[in-house]
Amino acid sequence: FLLAFISYSFNLILENGTSIQQNFESLFTLSFWKFTFEHYWNFSENYSLFLISISLFSALLLFLSYAFFYRFFSLKFLKNLHYILDLIENLPVVAIVIFLQWSFIQIYKLTQIRLLNTIGTASQPVIFVPFLIVTIFPTIFLIKYMTPFIKDCYQSNYFLFARSLGYTNLFLFLRYTVPNLVRPLESIIGMIYLEMISVMVFIELQFNTGGTLTKIQSIFEFPTNNAALDTFSYLCTLWLPYIVVKFIFKVYKRVN
Fold it and tell me: What was the pLDDT predicted at 148?
């Protein structure tokens, strides 16, 4: 936030004498937050926000499902699963997207059946393929990074003793496993979110959908007198899902 805000402020100082202090004071005006709120509800511009939001929560939900069923998986199944995940993770995002687009186009040519749109617009953006791309890699990273923590939880003496007392799997998962996973999960969620943002830059360009990141780029290329404030507003909107998830983690840790 601050880097983008200061860089645009310096640019404005050179162009029209606007000071950093004036820009900073503008952050606390009603007009700035009104603009931010209006941007939040503008789907043609917050396509990035919508896609990253559902992808982030989907990745967390898939990871929690994996963590819950982990103790029911055989060692052979886990080994094969991680082998497949390693293969997918080593594939470049660009190659996957181009391959999917090429596949859908070839299927349409042969059968005249349009499975999914491969190119979108600001008013009709592509959803499914970008959602799949933005979700799958953070999910794989979560599973690979958090598996040792999951294993430690299920092999701990506390968990084994609680199971011997007759507590259900769901009860122990919610009251013991999840609280023990929140701390390491919280430490990497920021890095995962940054990865999602970096992928979204490519998604917006490749699928011609536009969005928050494209808007920030246009402000950078064609700065206006309010470039610093506009950029800060878009960044505030873009980071909203991360802030919400961090808040949920804080509340969950305090409750448990």
Answer: 93
